[in-house]
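This is your field. Please look over both lines of this record.
***
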Amino acid sequence: MPDNRYASWREFRIFVDFFRRGDHLNADMTGIFSPKFQLKSNITGQQFLAFAQSQAEADVCFINVFPTLPYYSYNVWMQGESAHPGLLQRAQALLTATGIDWNLSSTPRHNHANLCYGNFWVGTPAFWQAYVGGVLDPIAHFLETNPDDPEARAVFDAAPHTVEAPFLPFITERLFSTFLSLHPALRVVPFHDAGRDPLLHCTTEFRREVVCHMRSRVDQADASNSFTLELIQEQALFSRLAALYHNVHFQLHRHPHLVPEEVPLTRPGQVPS
C-alpha cells in the first residue's frame, strides 16, 4: 500500500487487495504469510511449502500455530470472546450488516481438522473465490462504503490484547475456521507432524496444566463427534481462566511471539522482561 490508511485492517486488507488484483489466479495454490510464520509455527516456510505441494487434491492446506486451543475452547468464537470480550457481538453485527447469514453462536466444533489461527493457509483459486470472494471481500466492501455505520465503527474499537489492535483483525482471523466448518465438502488438509504435540506449544505452565487435564476427554469427544454440554461448559470456564492468566502473565513476561518493536513500554509496577 502506498499509504497507511488501512493499517488497522492488518492482513485482512492484504488478502482483499490480493484477491481483487486477481493474484490468486497465478498458481495452483496461493497464500499470504507474515514474517512471523517461523516464529509462531516452529517450522520453516520451505517445510510448509513442501507439505502443500504434496497435497495435489486439496482445496486448502493450513497450519494451526496454537494447537493447544481446541482443548479449552469449543470453537474460535468461544476462545475469541474469552480473549477479547465484546468480539462475538461485534462480529455478528458486522456479518449481519454485510448480508452474511451466519449465526456465530451456533458455530460447530473447531478441532485439529479445521482450526487455524494466524491465517497460515494456502488455497486453490476456487477456494479463494469462495472464501475471500464470498466472505472477506463483501465485508471489506461494507466497511469501505459504510464507514460511519455503528457496525463498522465498532470493529475498529481497541480490543483487549497483548499489543494495541482493533477488533477487526481478530474477527477476520476467525472467519477462516468458521467457513471451513460450514463447508464440510471442502478437501481440507491440516499440517501434522510430531512437533505439533500441543504440550510443546504451551506458552504458559497454566495452559500446560489445562491441556493435560482436558486432553483425553476432548480427544475422545472429537473422535466420537459427541460433546456433552458439561464438557463444553468446562471448556468455556478454562478458556476464560486461560485468558485471565495470560493477561497477567504477559504483563510480567515478554510474549514469545512478539518481536522487539512490538514490546509495550513498561507500565508502572510492571516487571520488565
Notes: The chain has one domain: 7-254.
